[in-house]
Amino acid sequence: MPLDSIEDYDRLGAHLAEIDAPLAAFAAKHGYTVYPRLSGGRYPNRRITQEGLIFRSIHISMDDMPSGERYDHFFPDIPYTVWGGAWIDDHEKHIRWSCASVLIRSVPFILLTRTLQVHLDHFHGYLSGISEDYVRACARTSSLGTLPT
């Protein structure tokens, strides 16, 4: 199935409905905002973020094929990556400060559904320990684009 339309991507990502309720419950319990579908791009993904001085985010996304191409159909062992990271946005200086992140790759979706809570708890535990001093001490910066006026 080619990925030519939003509907094609919706069909490819329909299986993520299986993790939506537990992800939303976790987000509500720990003060994360659940971002709308497609906010992280059309390719299947889910994202939750704690917003404040320090942004803490957990992003679950379908991997690409080893060849670098995108999958165009679902199968239970389709691989996913779970990423967790934190950053500080300085809009006055147009700088994003970031620090070390945590990442697991190639988790088969069928395993992800069974271990989602374990991963969320682990990532949240790591992210919760990140302080402003730590983020700034890592000294990793990138440029923020200017906001439209």
Describe the structure.
There is one protein chain. With 149 residues, this protein is an alpha+beta fold. The chain has one domain. It is 33% helix and 29% strand. The protein contains four helices and seven strands. Helix 2 runs parallel beside helix 3. The N and C termini lie far apart (41 Å).
What's the topology here?
Elements: H1 6-13, H2 17-30, E1 33-34, E2 45-50, E3 55-62, E4 79-90, E5 95-98, E6 102-108, H3 109-128, H4 132-138, E7 140-143
Helix pairs in contact: 2-3
Summarize the structure.
This protein is α+β, with helices and mostly antiparallel strands and 149 residues long.
Total number of β-strand segments?
Answer: 7
Global structural class: alpha+beta
Uncertain residue ranges: none
Helix content: 25-40%
Mean pLDDT, all residues: 93
Q: Count of DSSP helices?
A: 4
Q: What would you report as the Rg, rounded to the nearest angstrom?
A: 16 Å
Biggest sheet record: 7 strands, antiparallel
Question: What is the number of domains?
Answer: 1
Order of helices and strands: HHEEEEEEHHE
Alpha-carbon distance between the two ends:
41 Å
Shape call: globular
Strand content: 25-35%
Summary tags:
alpha+beta, seven-stranded antiparallel beta sheet, 149 residues
